[in-house]
Structures are given as structure tokens and as C-alpha cells.
């Protein structure tokens, strides 16, 4: 296990395919203590990214209304007890919102009113740190009015059984990127992604009890380019699970318990695969190496394969097994 998989580091692959870290240290921090109605936050200077911390009480509907030009907003280390209708998106320029909850956060329900006015919102990141004693509830209608949402990332929120209800109000046509990490997913229904025809990146990661995938789970994801299933507990894959991923370029399936890899099926179902990570799965390094060689003979675009736990200068099995 690498450290960065334990920490909730927000790094996303954007529409243009670049990886970016959302929050760097030199961003302006706004801390304002107890909030008052009629006293919106103001910034000295023009910023496109702002992080707000240490705020207590009600997030009034006018609080963020003066953040002109701010596109990315992070609210963290807060003690918000209530969010007034439309408050989060009261600045129309905001396209990205990250909302973090901690052990000492107040219980709160994220309903569609919390996201009212968020018609322009494109990216929503919800992070829940380490088993909150007072649960934050994501209401079934929460994502109902987000017609332009293309990225949804939920980390640390218990889902257990991922089914149609879990995602039913998300706009399936606009969504391009979905991350569900540390969500304690154990079971996934076969039809969950059936209507997410435009999805290009899917991360179902760090769900330690997820040991199998239903066949046909991805069959309607013909535009998917990146699939990450790292850090689950996947075991007896038949590899038929991957049928339909005809555009997939990158598959990460490291840190699981997969005992066999089927080069014929992978080559048949993932004809455009360029990058594959299978490190930290039980087969011996030499077995993985043989599989990788066979797969590379069948898939000529496959150029980037990681199969050793700690690839050195030479990616061979000499130091292992
Ligand atoms: C913002 O807060 C973080 C965490 O406290 C700190 O590391 C960072 O240096 C702060 N940035 C500025 C510009 O003050
Ligand atoms: C905000 O709430 C926390 C937890 O209840 C408390 O420790 C802190 O002093 C409060 N801050 C202000 C400015 O009231
Ligand atoms: C912020 O941007 C606006 C519009 O681009 C400009 O009129 C204003 O002078 C800028 N303010 C500062 C403090 O740079
Ligand atoms: C999903 O794929 C299956 C098999 O290709 C097809 O029968 C079904 O109509 C597709 N569903 C949608 C919603 O596109």
C-alpha cells in the first residue's frame, strides 16, 4: 500500500486528460468564525480558487455571493450546522465545489436544496473522513438539479450496495467522471452504469470488501477510457466482466487478490488498451511477466504495463519471488 492511497489527495484527470491537484498551499484561505447573515465573505484581490475553513453555524444564502470570479471553492474544517437553500452556489462563477466533513463535523443532510442554483456546477467532490459518528446524509434527491455536472467524486461515504438508487438522480448524460472511493461497497448491481453512456473515467477504488464484479457491469460504457479498480478485494475474475469496454485505454487493477489474468479475453474485450497496472496481486512475478508478454503480442498499443510491486530501473522479476 502506498501512502498516497491512504490519504485523500484530490487529484483528477480533467477533460483534457491532464492530471491536476486541486488545492495547493499558496491558495488564499478564508476563515471567518461564526457566520452572520448579511455579511458575505469578500476577497481582497481576484482569485479563481478559494478555500474556506473554520466557519461555524449556518451557511447563509448570501455568504458566498460576493466571490466574484471564483471558479473553484473548497469548504473544509468547518462546523456548519445548516446550509440555506442555494447558499453553496450563490456565486454564479463557481464550477467546482469540494465539501469536506470530519469527525467533529455537525450532522447535516445534503438535499437538493443544498445544491439549488447549482445549474452551472461542473465538478462536485464530497469527502468524508474516517467513519463519522454523526452521519452526513446524502438525500436521494441531492443531485437532481445538476444538469451540467461532469465530475462527481465521493470519498468515505458508506454505500455498501451500489444500485440504481444510489446514483439515480445524477445527470447521466453530462457525467464524464465518477469516483467512489472508500465507500465500503460490497455489492454492485449489474445495471448501475447502464445509462451513463458518456462516462469516460470511472474509479471504484479502495472498497476493501468488494470481492467480485457482476458480468456485464460495464457493457454500456463504450466511451470509457479510464477504469480504476485498485485497492478493492477482487478475487475470482473470469474477465468476462470487462465486455463492452471497447474504448478503454487505461486499466488499473492493482492491490487486489486476482489470481489469474486472461490475455485472450483482455485482448478481445479491451482492444484499445494502452496502459495496465496489475501490481500487488497474488501471482508470482514470473507468472505476471509471462502474461504481460503474451498480452503485448496480442495488443500492439499496449506500451505501459506495471506488474511489479516496486518497479525498478529494469521491470523484470530478478529481485522478486
Ligand atoms: C492555507 O491553509 C493551509 C492549512 O492550514 C496552509 O498549509 C496554507 O499554507 C495556507 N495558505 C495560505 C496562503 O495561507
Ligand atoms: C466553532 O465550533 C467549534 C466546535 O464546536 C469550536 O471549538 C470553535 O471554538 C467554534 N469557533 C468559533 C469561532 O465559534
Ligand atoms: C478584479 O477583476 C476585475 C474584472 O476583471 C477588475 O475590474 C478589478 O480591477 C480586479 N481587481 C483587482 C483587485 O485586481
Ligand atoms: C446496454 O447494452 C446492452 C447490450 O449491448 C443493450 O441490449 C442495452 O440496450 C444497452 N442499454 C442502454 C441503455 O443503452
UniProtKB/TrEMBL annotation:
<dbReference type="InterPro" id="IPR001611">
    <property type="entry name" value="Leu-rich_rpt"/>
</dbReference>
<dbReference type="GO" id="GO:0005615">
    <property type="term" value="C:extracellular space"/>
</dbReference>
<protein>
    <submittedName>
        <fullName>LRR 8 domain containing protein</fullName>
    </submittedName>
</protein>
<keyword id="KW-0732">Signal</keyword>
<keyword id="KW-0433">Leucine-rich repeat</keyword>
<dbReference type="InterPro" id="IPR003591">
    <property type="entry name" value="Leu-rich_rpt_typical-subtyp"/>
</dbReference>
<dbReference type="InterPro" id="IPR050328">
    <property type="entry name" value="Dev_Immune_Receptor"/>
</dbReference>
<dbReference type="Pfam" id="PF13306">
    <property type="entry name" value="LRR_5"/>
</dbReference>
<keyword id="KW-0677">Repeat</keyword>
<dbReference type="Pfam" id="PF13855">
    <property type="entry name" value="LRR_8"/>
</dbReference>
<dbReference type="InterPro" id="IPR032675">
    <property type="entry name" value="LRR_dom_sf"/>
</dbReference>
<feature type="signal peptide">
    <location>
        <begin position="1"/>
        <end position="19"/>
    </location>
</feature>
<dbReference type="InterPro" id="IPR026906">
    <property type="entry name" value="LRR_5"/>
</dbReference>
<dbReference type="GO" id="GO:0031012">
    <property type="term" value="C:extracellular matrix"/>
</dbReference>
